[in-house]
Design a protein that fits this description.
Elements lengths: L1 H22 L7 E5 L1 H12 L6 E5 L5 H17 L7 H4 L2 H15 L13 H7 L2 H4 L14 H12 L22 H7 L15 H8 L13 H5 L21 H5 L8 H5 L3 E7 L7 H14 L7 E6 L16 H11 L5 E5 L5 H4 L8 E5 L5 E3 L12 E3 L1
Helix pairs in contact: 1-2, 3-8, 3-10
This protein binds calcium ion.
């Protein structure tokens, strides 16, 4: 419970008391910013302790983190279904295969936003336009360059469709097709997260799943990095344990890891606080689709939710950073302007990190900029604009 939410709940008043004792006045503003599990923490804090903060930033949030750990086991099972004897997921899906899928996505989707620039801003149209089965060449025999085997396609499609139990019920979320799946950070988290001497390390999955998210706690064998544990994980009988309680564990993982009611941010709203959420659409750890579904539900529950909560999608960006993306931006300044000047962010200008190999290999200008748009708007090339390296050539629509 401390890990899930109560550390913030306990320490925030204490920190404020220390500030007041030292400076003889309360802090003028209180902000919270985190990515990944820190992004999850920001969302939980907005719901549970929203009156304690003036503004929060939840980046690539592990919003439904126990569910994402289920999905990681699912992913491992799918990737390994395409692996040969002695192979790991990284062997079953060499980088050339992911680059081929990325290029195939670009071929169908890049121009949909008006600019053939290596970025897919029109995410919705792309999901309808791209078809893994028909748009990527199928190998006639063994895996070679320039094609995917049927086994690779089947596995990758199941990963992107999202974890399901045998009844076909979704256990987490689907994932958007985005050219950023060829990013180094995507590969690290999804396929290649091995740390010597372990051949494979499932990171958030096996260890966290067994010890933290399963009730009663399990003791996963991590001597192989958790590979065997994930391969044996049942979507029917193990996955539901993230919702279970068993004394003395009287709160389930889903209860302590997620906001009590994610679409009711009453404390934040009534306290005048603001929440910015941003998420890379090629995040391999936490699906942007899960965050989008949350924001859609928030808007459905409160039509005026944009007054205190806004979502920004970052095309191509992997987990918190990296990928072929404009992943350099200052959301904290945008949040301060919103809280302190009342200027709500409709768009935030983002640049590239030219030292990132994914950017360098894409051949983009080192000074490329793009507007990140408040969801559901997305950046589209202005009619007649020709400079595809400049944010000024794009508009949110
Ligand atoms: Ca484009």
């Amino acid at each position: 419970m401390d890990y899930g939410y109560n550390a913030v709940g306990t320490l925030t008043p204490l920190a404020k008391a220390i500030v007041e004792r030292r400076y003889a006045s309360k802090p003028t503003r209180s902000y919270f910013m985190g990515c990944s599990n820190g992004g999850r923490q920001a969302m939980v804090t907005a719901a549970r302790f929203g009156d304690q903060f003036d503004g929060l930033i939840a980046a690539d949030p592990g919003f439904n983190l126990p569910k994402a750990a289920v999905a990681e086991a699912w992913d491992t099972q799918q990737f390994m279904s395409a692996a040969g004897t002695g192979q790991l997921p990284k062997d079953a899906f060499p980088q050339a295969a992911m680059a081929l899928v990325s290029q195939s996505i670009l071929a169908k989707c890049d121009a949909l936003d008006g600019a053939s620039d290596g970025l897919v801003n029109d995410r919705i149209a792309c999901q309808a336009a791209f078809n893994l089965t028909t748009n990527v060449p199928t190998c006639s025999g063994a895996a070679t360059s320039g094609c995917l085997t049927t086994a690779q396609k089947t596995a990758l499609q199941k990963v992107f469709d999202g974890a399901k139990n045998t009844a076909g019920q979704s256990l987490y979320a689907s994932w958007p097709w985005d050219p950023g799946i060829a990013g180094a950070n995507w590969r690290f988290w999804k396929l290649d997260a091995g740390f010597a001497p372990l051949p494979f390390n499932t990171l958030i999955g096996a260890g966290a799943m067994g010890y933290v998210f399963t009730t009663p706690p399990d003791v996963p064998d991590l001597s192989d990095g958790g590979l065997g544990y994930q391969l044996g994980f049942s979507m029917d009988t193990d996955a539901p344990k993230i919702f279970a309680i068993a004394a003395p564990f009287n709160e389930s993982a889903m209860s302590f890891m997620t906001p009590p009611n994610p679409t009711q941010l009453t404390k934040l709203k009534q306290g005048g606080g603001k929440l910015i959420v941003y998420h890379g659409t090629a995040d391999p750890v936490f699906s942007a689709n899960d965050t989008i579904a949350w924001y859609d539900a928030l808007k459905a529950a409160d039509a005026n939710a944009a007054v205190y909560a806004r979502l920004f999608l970052v095309p191509g960006m992997n987990h918190c950073t990296g990928g072929p993306a404009t992943d350099r931006f200052n959301m904290l300044t945008a949040l301060e302007d919103w809280v302190e000047k009342g200027t709500a962010p409709d768009s935030v200008v983002a640049g590239v990190n030219p030292a990132d190999p994914d950017v360098a290999s894409a051949g983009w200008s080192a000074t490329r900029t793009r507007p990140l748009c408040a969801y559901p708007k997305q950046a589209m090339l202005k009619a007649g604009a020709t400079d595809i390296e400049s944010a000024a050539s794009f508009q949110c629509q």
